[in-house]
Design goal:
With 603 residues, the chain is α/β, with parallel strands linked by helices. The chain has a 29-stranded parallel β-sheet that branches. Strands 2-5-9-13-17-21-25-29-31-33-36 form an eleven-stranded parallel β-sheet. A hairpin with a 2-residue loop joins strand 42 (379-382) and strand 43 (385-388). The protein is rod-shaped.
Amino acid sequence: MSHPSPEPSSTPPSWLPCGHGTTPEDQVGCRGIDVPGHTACLAHLADADRDAYLSGLTPGTDIDHRGTTFTEPLLDALLDALRDPATRYPRLGDARFTSATFQGDAEFEFATFQGEARFQSATFKGDAVFGAAAFQGDVGFRSATFKGDAVFEAATFERDAEFRVATFQSGARFGAATFQGNTGFESATIQGDTVFEMATFQGDARFGAATFQGNTGFESATIQGDTCFVGAVFKRAASLGPLVCAGRVKLSGAVFGGPVTLSLAARRLECRRTRWSSTAEIRLRYAAVDFAHAVFEYPLTIAAEAEPFVLSYGQPMAEQALADAPDDGVRVASLRGVDAAHLVLADVDLSGCLFAGTVHLDQIRLEGTCSFDRVPPRTHWRRWYPLRFTPRRALAEEHHWRASRPAAVRGWNVAVLGAGHIGPAQLAPVYRALRKAFEDGKNEPGAAVFYYGEMEMRRHDRTGTTRAERGLLRGYWLLSGYGLRASRALGWLAAAMLVTIVLLMGFGLPKDSPKQEATGTVPPGGGKVTFEIDKADPQSPTGDRFTGERFDKALNVTLNSVVFRSSGQDLTTTGTYIEMVSRVTEPVLLGLAVLAVRNRVKR
């Protein structure tokens, strides 16, 4: 058997190396650890000694070949010595291959590692095949280099599996693999395609700062713990899912360089400071989503799925891992710092979403049924007077602001995480931008709701709104709900008409209608007679003023005043002034009511 050449290095290993092939340039020589009872590594043992060592191995034996360089025949001979006669597959105890080099294909398919499997800093120059392998102890591939295909399909990792800082130069396939412990791919680099289809992660899965340079697929993967892709880089197209995660999916700081499709059923999706350099579609179930300070360079859609995801072969994906998760829809937690010009939201819950600081919010597209929080219902008492809020949509930041005010009424939600010091001055532009977004979407009734919120914030803003303007806004709100509450304007109109009628009956209508009188003088000797027609001044009423006849006259005057017409009814001086005031105020109130009806029904 030929002896492989060790990789040159000037740093001696932590174990006693074989030292074969030392040169002045390489004073360490072969880094392979000595075989027990010998002074050479397995690669440099004499043939007779190697055969004797291998023949002494039994299935399940612990082996230590750190730093050893394996050719294909040498590795096959080692695995044949550990092959279980009952299963015909290799069975190893503790396997230590730290810093080992596999010059050809490494065929560990169907192998069973009963103890720890240590491949830290190992180099696989050919394909590394661990398909259907069973790792019963901890697995370590930290800083390993896979120059060929890395195949772990249908492998089972019963405890923790570590692939941190590993390099996969030709892709990695973990389809149908099962990870029962925690899994770590932090800072790993995968240059080819990555396949985790139908994989199961029963512990946490960490992919922080990993780099995926090829296509990435996680179809039908199930993760029982948290999934971490923090700082990961996906340089080409990525398809994550359908994936079920019982915990959180962490993508914060990740970079997506190609088109992305995410289909996730999880409790929470964290995408803070992510960068999306191509189109992306994110379809979710159950999750609360945080996109604070994310960057969208192309259109990105976040949509809620009402039914379980359907796999490529037509079957719905099982969601037992989320059986205890509340099915209250997909909730967006934050869009702060986001440029929403390319963002589309469909059928998501925005009741807890933080919008303050979102750029180009007026260009956001809201499709389907996107729900917002509501103001507190029912009538509340503030000190000695009742207080009732007009039913409308309200932002989470408004809830936090109102709940934080002194003497706040019950029902406002103060527990809005991350709301910070937000007040009316910051919320008015947010309501204005959302109003414009609804207007551009031809949803005028929806826009009217956010117009109401905008005016409310302006009315309460003591920094950007003058006192005079706040007074006008308060009157506008009180009379007609900013031109949006027809019932309020009609109520004030009815009250104004009633007051006008009562005042006219009490003071405006004369006691009796004055009659015309004609007076003239007949010239002596006859001739033309000239008459002067005059009417007596109306007399103030006395006696019973509130009669049916006087009510009819007062009602006639009032109704004509509403439409800005004169009734022609004789009035006292006081009644004339009452009519003048009525002809100014009541048409205005009628106009506000008509405007409110129009704003509520136009589309």
